[in-house]
Amino acid sequence: MQPAVTGAVWAVIYLLAVVAPLFLMLVGDAPPSRGWLVDTSVAFGFIGLAMLGLQFALTARFNTVDASYGLDVVLRFHREISYVALAMILMHPVLLFIDEPARLALLNVIEAGWQARAGVAAVVLLLVLIVLSVWRRPLRLPYEVWRFTHGLLALAIVGTALWHIGLVGYYVTGPFRRGLWLAMSVVIVALVVYVRVVKPWRLLRRPWRVRSLEQLSGRTWHLWLEADGHDGLAFAPGQFAWLTVDRSPFAIREHPFSLSSSAECRQRVRFTIKELGDFTSRIGQLTPGTRAHLDGPYGAFTYERGQAEGFVLLAGGIGVTPMLSMLRTMRDRGDPRPVWLFYANPTWEEASLHEELEELRDGLDLEVVHVLEAPPDDWDGPVGLIDGELLAERLPPGADRFAYFICGPDPMMDAVEAVLHERAVPPTRLHFERFDFIE
Known about the structure:
Strand order of the largest sheet: 4-3-6-1-2-5
Number of strands: 11
Shape: elongated
Helix content: 40-55%
Distance between the termini: 33 Å
CATH topology of the largest domain: Four Helix Bundle (Hemerythrin (Met), subunit A)
């Protein structure tokens, strides 16, 4: 099945799962209506809770789902849909208060019953989760601490919300409705067990070892890993994996990096990592033989998903990493299709992969265009940013029929996307990879 068709199927399944609780209000011996505002309030609450429950599935990294959109898109959707779920959840009490202002007394959790306490707790915990996620950096909350508390809060929110529904009991009467709500609870627990127990256990059985480290300019490193007693990692060029180093896969700390080696070599893989944060700043301290674990591959950022006469790769800084994997794979496979790579960096020193790109020209129909913001005095190449004028000047006629792959900082990607739309490049030929959803 084509990725677009599979993606549409998953979208329909998601929508059906979101509205499924509404049918529970109607099937069988439905209780009498308590008024339009109250019933609408309950509907909002049910939809919001269904969205929160589905968040566990969105973050479970199922390849069958992620392959249709790319994990970066799935996690972005996970983040944005959280605000929609929050709005739905908040509409539940707001409409109840509008219908009968006396219900505001339920906010007094000291005197209110347990059903009100559970509902208030669910809303408060959800607000805390959103605040910690949005303001994690200003609060200087370490990523590992945030991720651990994020998971605990998510479980507590859904748990208290289900408890609230059970205590109210109005639309969950009867064995059928109670059975479905119980099934929802079991599915959520099963997803948590899968993510935190089953998947790490599988990774534990397929360890890797650090083979070597190579330092480049611009605070960049090549990290080579070698499979330890298994057949390695089958991946498509351009994909990425979550890396855990020198600790158990059951640990919270793992980080996503694009593979920069050829997909033709499964037992020895390479990551090209720039020192940008707490973990990456210590990458040079790793020693050969250190144990590692890989969860992957993930991502839809690969030329293998479609057919094209040629490729235009537009990279900013370390965003060139997945494109190195594409180029190396094409060379190893003897792919004759033409490739234009526009590689933007602030300075020449930060263009740390220029020597490797020159070496790749020997086995490929590859044209590399370096673009620098602050070039050296003897620089005679393009200066500034990748823009429409540069593409019009350097790309051959008919390049709009090529496939375009864009990866880099968000401002660069937004600007390049606007340029490509101005050039009337069809959206189906545009492929993006964004990693700012992680940190």
